[in-house]
Amino acid sequence: MPEKQIIPASMMLPNKLFIIPLSGNPIYPGIFTPMMLSEAQDIALADESMSGDSMLGFLLLRSNESQNTDADELYTIGTAAKIIKRINLPDGGI
After folding, report:
1. Cα 61 to Cα 63: distance, rounded to the nearest angstrom
2. Which has the closest alpha carbon to 33: 24, 41, 8?
3. Residue 89 has what pLDDT?
4. Whole-angstrom Cα distance, residue 7 to residue 32?
C-alpha cells in the first residue's frame, strides 16, 4: 500500500477487541504511552489480549466519579492500542 493511503479499521483491528475504561485523560493514537493497570479485571483482559494479538481498546468514562462501567457510561470513540511490553509491578499491578 502507498505510504499515505488511509487503511480501513477492519484491516487493522482484530474482530474482538477487549475494552478497558479510563477515567481522566484519553490515550491518543500514535503515541507510546505507559499504562498502569491495577484492577484484576483489567489485568485479566491484558493477559488474554497478550495471548492473541496484543490489542486493547481504551474508552473514556463520561464521568470521573462514576464507579459504573456499563456501556452507556462510556464514550463511543476511543483508541485501539497494541501492548508492546508488560512489566509486573511489586504491588501486583502491571
Report:
1. 5
2. 24
3. 92
4. 20
Half-sphere exposure of 58 (CA within 13 A, CB side): 19
pLDDT value at position 56? Answer: 93
- Give me the long-range contacts of 64-70 (CB less than 8 A, separation at least 24): 64/23, 64/24, 66/23, 69/21
pLDDT for the residue 83? 92
Residues of the chain with pLDDT under 50: none
CA distance 80 to 86: 17
What is the reported pLDDT for 67? Answer: 66
At 46, list the grid cell.
491484558
Task: Tell me how many degrees the CA angle 30-31-33 measures, rounded to the nearest 5.
Answer: 140
